Amino acid sequence: MNETIVCVVGNVATPPVYRELPSGPSARFRLAATARYWDREKGVWTDGHTNFFTVWANRQLAVNVAASVEVGQPLLIQGRLKVRTEVRDGQQQWASADIDAMAIGHDLSRGTAVFHRAARSEPAATAARPEPNWETPPPAAAQDGTAVPPAEQEPAAVT
């Protein structure tokens, strides 16, 4: 598929919103990514334009985001970029950039973090199905008690 995969470094701008949906857990938050450049004339770092992205996380990633991410934290986001444009109020063009996150992590160049492995949730138990019998049945005995050659035996039914 022709998807645009991006890696964005920025700060969390809004608190994560967590929801349990029929398709599974989902979380979203806004990420602000500001370009910085060295201004040679002033001899200082200067903030450039700020881009805002809506980051979407699903399933276990959403659960972990809700437990780990707070406003102001520096994050690295890797995911699929989706840019949408709409016409609002009849003429105004509106655009949004969403990232369907595949991986989210704290930017360790700007602080420390402690990793805790999430406990895996067990899938719902389903009715147990019996294991099929894959063993070869013993040779059938003839009426007189002698073994029947394999070529003359009927094939065993597989369950």
TrEMBL record:
Segments traversing the membrane: none
From what superkingdom does this record's organism come?
Answer: Bacteria
The protein's matches in Pfam families, at most eight in alphabetical order, are given as: SSB (PF00436)
* CDD domains recorded: SSB_OBF (cd04496)
The family database entries (SUPFAM superfamilies) matched by this protein are listed as: Nucleic acid-binding proteins
Q: Which UniProt keywords apply?
A: DNA-binding
Q: Which InterPro entries match?
A: NA-bd_OB-fold, Primosome_PriB/ssb, ssDNA-bd
Cite the residue spans of the region called Disordered. 118-159
Task: List all Low complexity biased stretches.
Answer: 121-131, 147-159
On subunit structure and binding partners, the annotation says:
Homotetramer.
Q: Which HAMAP family match?
A: SSB
Q: Could you tell me what this protein is called?
A: Single-stranded DNA-binding protein
Q: Which organism is this protein's natural source?
A: Streptomyces albidocamelliae
